[in-house]
Amino acid sequence: MKRNFLTRAGAGILSLVMLLGLAACGGDTNGETAGGGDSGEKTKLYVVNWKDYASDDKELMAAFEEEYNCEIVNTYMESEEQLLTSLKTASEGSIDVCLPNCTILPAAIEAGLLKEIDTSKLDNFFKLYERFQSQKECVGEDGKMYAVPFVWGSTAIAYNTELMSEAPTTLASLFDEQYAGKITIRDDYNDAVMAAAIVLGQDPAAPSDLDAIKDLLIKQKPLNRTYWQTGDEFSKLFAGGQIEFGMMWSGQAATMKNEGEPIAFVVPEDGAIGWVDNWAIASGSQNEELAYAFINYMISKDVQYNWATKGGPAPANQEAAEAVDPEYAAACGMDEDSLNRLYFMAYQDDATKAKWAELWTEVKAS
Fold first, then answer.
1. Which pLDDT score, from 0 to 100, does residue 125 have?
2. Given phi > 0 = left and psi -120 to 50 = alpha, else beta, which region is 70?
3. Is 92 helix (H, G, I), strand (E, B) or coil?
4. Distance between CA 5 and CA 31 in Å, rounded?
5. Cβ of 303: how many Cβ atoms within 10 Å?
6. Packing angle between helix 231-239 and helix 250-258, nearest 10 degrees?
7. What is the reported pLDDT for 255?
8. CB atoms near residue 310 (< 10 Å)
9. What is the reported pLDDT for 39?
10. What are the Cα distances from residue 1, in Å, to 50, 107, 229, 256, 257?
């Protein structure tokens, strides 16, 4: 998320505003500074996140690091399952804060990999949309909260406005023979199974007929130019004119649009896949108070608004979301109408994940 709408002067003003906001919220907890204090030595906060996903944005992080005399050290994950493995194998103190998706949260909570969240320590928690304040995957079976929603978005359709005169209006267009050789979908069993389920009218969180889903995905395979795994792969396919449209994340589509690509994003009439990313504190964290300060900062109106308008996903903070230009929000799939057309990803047990993964392996091998 490198390009943004801010000038250098504007970025400086933003940092000052965020710094004053942090001071207003208080940099101390029980009279003790969360960061490095008066020693001058910077405390390191170890964050596991996606690359280019806000916590490594120098402009957004500058005010926080200055206020708390700390350094944010990012480690990048490549998948949700990798994050889960990292939490299980991490040494004490090597992970402070992480960003689990709702698909792995229940497993992480059940395994005791995350600390309970005391929302009274987060001034900005109650500025989140009500639906996110009670996100079910963030709550353990003991009724306690273990994660805080950060952003939400969709995996829907992005298309080249120079190559397509009309937007694809249904998810079924990804399976339409008239677009043979012009399509790309993601190489991910969750996305593939859920997309096929939506097209077939099944519940994408609990499909009733995996054989029908497999058959549909096998029929789609020859229509597909290629399966992409990373956002960079999609960007190169798009920039090279090798595809006209395909499955893509709302946030990356917004970033590509901001960078001047002829791309538009649409959440189809028949629905698309939704997701929620959440901040959590690792059970082995040794910087708990600084971790709380970081989460509070990341769900603040200023950070959420500015990252959203730079091409980030949709804010969970309602004040930030309402400040985003409505036309821009609709174009990026972060408006309320788009939200209401989404089928959100849910936690699946190991047996279900194994079935879906096996199905996808068979589709690609067919």
1. 98
2. beta
3. coil
4. 38
5. 27
6. 50
7. 84
8. 21
9. 59
10. 11, 29, 18, 9, 11
- CA 231 remoteness from chain centre: 13
Q: What are phi and psi of 356, to 5 degrees?
A: -65, -40
pLDDT, position 25: 44
pLDDT band at 188 (very low <50, low <70, confident <90, very high): very high
Q: Which residue has the tokens 């390009």?
A: 3
In three-state secondary structure terms, 314 is strand
Tokens of 65: 């690091």
pLDDT at 27 over 70: no
Give the pLDDT band of residue 280 (cuts 50, 70, 90). very high
β-pair type (43-49, 70-76): parallel
Cα→Cα distances 40→31, 32, 47, 230, 315, Å: 18, 15, 21, 40, 34
Among 337, 299, 335, smallest CA distance to 314 is for: 335
- Side chain identity, residue 235: S
So what's the pLDDT on residue 40?
A: 67
Q: Where are the alpha helices (DSSP H) in the chain?
A: 8-25, 58-67, 80-89, 105-110, 130-133, 189-200, 210-220, 231-239, 250-258, 288-298, 301-309, 318-323, 326-331, 336-339, 350-365
Please report, rounded to a whole number, the percentage of residues in the chain having pLDDT higher than 70: 90
Pair type for strands 224-228 and 183-186: parallel
- Of residues 317 and 350, more confidently modeled: 317
Give mean pLDDT, residues 64-91.
95
Report the candidate in 113, 122, 5, 121 with the shortest Cα–Cα distance to residue 59: 5
